[in-house]
Fold:
Amino acid sequence: MDAEIGIIGGSGFYSLLEAPENVEIDTDYGKPSDFISIGMLNGVKVAFIPRHGSKHALPPHKVPYKANIAVLSSLGAKRVIATATVGSLKRSYKPGDFVLFDQFFNMTYGRADTFYDQGDVAHVSMAEPYCNEMREAAVDSLNELGLSYHEKGTAVVINGPRFSTKAESRFFSMQGFETINMTQYPEAALAHEKSLCYLGIGIVTDYDAGLEGGEEAKPVSASEIISVFGQNVSKAKELVRAIVPRLQKERKCACKDSLEGALMGH
Structure:
């Protein structure tokens, strides 16, 4: 039942795997978002979790992030590929573009965001929350597929499920953030705490609350997100298929050592 790579994404990714087996697994942190689909992808065994559940019944602040990351780790996955829809805070980040996150900025609240809230105390460095080795594989794949992308980008993470006001969106844009999202935190941070390599791939679906001084960019709506995501989900699946065989079993990145020196008293 082991899997080399974990994939977290939308329900549109169910058809990604070859002959998947759906299994139900409990964790010490509760149930994951849904069944775990385990199957082959380009010769590699992977485990897929629909972040919001197969019927998209879980809002961003109710996603069981700890259980999702814990179950992928328990299955033996060392790397996680996570796709997410994002809003753009810059005109150059256009709907339909892909973004490979290199940083997040957390604006969420009330989320269970650490595995070290009892027992061992750990202060894990989060200076580099995303895996540079995996990003290189993603860049090669994007170039091969001829897709429009941005090699780096910061995702400011809001609690949701509501969208931003124009004032909030203007503030985030002024801080220099490129994208806005509701799920990258604490997902990326928890993966880091488990010493997993984590690749965050954003699919730009909208211009958030509209761009300042650009009347052509209207505020986002849920129907718009669904429409743009639907137009790009096949490209996203192609991208994940291309990335997986490029990932070597041996990890040479720093992610595997994320707990080194972090545990107090050890």
The chain is about 25% helix and 25% strand.
